[in-house]
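Figure 3 (text version): structure tokens given as input.
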């Protein structure tokens, strides 16, 4: 994938940037979450998990992030003057010591629910989503936050498209985090709500 319009997006209005979000209609809630927790992003370094276009990265940069690393299965070529970089999940694992506990924030939207289902070339793993959130937690500095978007409803697996999180699996995803805020959309045709959880690692996290 070629990302060559990042600099142009940095010059757009808020509404124009939100309209370019990969998930139409969901850009508002991600931008709102970043507005609310601006202090965790401004002058801080972060990572984005799962991205087919750089809308979340642009949102973070526009909120003052000093650098953003994209973690994505598909190869990405970036042409930008912004401090944006890319790494494949395999390389992240191989270079783990360089990244552990280094990020102030991590953002991920409509990504974790696909992890381990093989839809985007990742290996099959029934615990793939739980491994991903554990990985994010380990990459955060103490006091860092995760801005996490995923569908909330009745627990369900739509093979091999996605998971929906309810009373069974959602507590596993949020285990070890302190919930700082929640933003959500209206219910979709399946009765699910696309929900943003802003969660932080407490300073006393064990």
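Below: residues designed for each position.
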């Amino acid at each position: 994938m070629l990302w060559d319009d990042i600099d142009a997006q940095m010059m757009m209005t808020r509404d124009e940037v939100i309209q370019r979000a990969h998930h139409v209609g969901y850009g508002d809630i991600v931008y709102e979450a970043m507005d609310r927790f601006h202090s965790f992003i401004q002058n801080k370094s972060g990572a984005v998990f799962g991205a087919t276009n750089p809308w979340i990265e642009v949102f973070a940069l526009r909120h003052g992030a000093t650098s953003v690393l994209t973690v994505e299965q598909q190869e990405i070529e970036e042409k930008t003057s912004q401090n944006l970089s890319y790494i494949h999940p395999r390389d992240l694992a191989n270079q783990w010591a360089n990244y552990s506990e280094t990020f102030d924030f991590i953002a991920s939207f409509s990504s974790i629910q696909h992890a381990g289902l093989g839809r985007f070339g990742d290996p099959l793993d029934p615990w793939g989503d739980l491994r991903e959130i554990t990985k994010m937690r380990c990459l955060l500095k103490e006091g860092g936050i995760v801005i996490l978007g995923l569908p909330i409803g009745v627990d369900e697996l739509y093979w091999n498209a996605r998971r929906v999180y309810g009373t069974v699996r959602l507590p596993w995803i949020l285990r070890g985090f302190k919930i700082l805020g929640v933003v959500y959309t209206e219910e979709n045709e399946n009765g699910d709500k696309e929900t943003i959880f802003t969660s932080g690692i407490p300073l006393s996290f064990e």
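The chain has a mean pLDDT of 88.
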